[in-house]
Design a protein that fits this description.
This protein has about 240 residues and is of the alpha/beta class. It contains eleven helices and nine strands.
Length: about 240
Amino acid sequence: MSPSAGPTVVLIHGAFADASSWSSVIERLQQEGLPVLAPALPLRGLESDAAYIRSVLDSVSGPVVLVGHSYGGSVISIAASGAPQVKALVYIAAFVPDIGESALELTGKFPGSTLGEATSTRSYPLPDGGQGEELIIEQHLFEQQFAAGVPAATARVMSVGQRPIALAALQGKATAAAWKEIPSWYLVATEDRNIPPAAEEWMAERAGAHTVSVVAPHAVSVSDPAPVTDLILRAVRSTG
């Protein structure tokens, strides 16, 4: 598949990660000849994050397959709304909120998340001079919480480079639900300790997504890039 024959795949990372979490997936997509973008998500607020990703989408000519991991799923559900170039949505162990739902609300819908026990809160300055709160996973807990199954040395590097997320972003309520209008695919990570697998299955079913399950941690794009890539390619093929 040459770049001109396929859509651009836009990969959106989530909390406690950065665009490098897609590295092995990117390599595989490039081997298929697909153009790929993996922008850095600010992780400061749901609406502002979605607006930024929408600006990225607007810079792409031609069709897009939009992929979100974790909190990135909340972002793509808003950013793709009213974006005619987005032909498919792919959720990788991700939130799929309906209008009015937040990531924190969906996390608590089913038991199983241990994220709250593994994170700490710290302050950061806001543009208006106030203080915001952000969450970060404690480095010594990062592997077991986020990346069990990832080689230990890789998990340690990820823990150091993790991107904290503003608490307000996780509390932000979705203002759009693009999955109601755009075909979607979902990968459930059955060993996820951030988002309960039962919540992932429930969200995927509600969205009517084409769903696969992988025995993998939350960082499934790092631990198991092959099935992640395969699901994305299924979405790519659907665009014709």
